[in-house]
Fold this sequence. Notes:
The chain is α/β, with parallel strands linked by helices. It has a domain at 3-33 and 84-169: P-loop containing nucleotide triphosphate hydrolases (Rossmann fold, 3-Layer(aba) Sandwich). The protein has a five-stranded parallel beta sheet with strand order 2-6-1-7-8, sandwiched between helices. A three-stranded antiparallel beta sheet has the order 4-3-5. The protein has eight helices and eight strands; from the N terminus they run βαβββαβαβαβαααβα. It starts with a strand and ends with a helix. Strand 3 and strand 4 form a beta hairpin. Helix 1 crosses helix 8.
Amino acid sequence: MSTLITGTPGSGKTTLVNYAKSQGDRRFCDADDMPGLCEWREFASGKTIGLVDEVTMISDDNWYKKHGWYWRTGRLQQWIKDNPEGIICGSSENIADCYRLFDRVILLRKTQAELLRNLQSPDRQNPFGKSTKQRAGFMEWQDYLIREAKVYPHSFIDSNDVSKTYQLVLQQLMP
């Protein structure tokens, strides 16, 4: 049963993948690290600029106003076919369009205080969400993710403790 774990930047998706792997659970995959999945597109034209690993991203607000991070659905469908019990953790501009590809959708939901704390953590490697302008819309993004998930089999996990989140995910995966 294919599973998507999504949430806003800073919700703990990458931390969850790293924790699962430290527990020997190889079903978890970070979408950001999946070759050929993520690409940058211009918002205005929809034109693909290139795969994420081919484009040097400029980590400033102007870049994010003009460009979006999208999943290539053909690549995603192939990954799901090759990994039927796989758990992909990530998000993208077209994430709601991808919900339908999965048997189960789990959203990591955060309070604004938790989200801000996570985004400002010195341990955070991802540059997205570092500026005040970038963080401003994340709670609205979370509301969007939740609203769009309502028509698919979904659940929510409210936890800022990675070991607890991992246990809650495992409970969701049980038949």
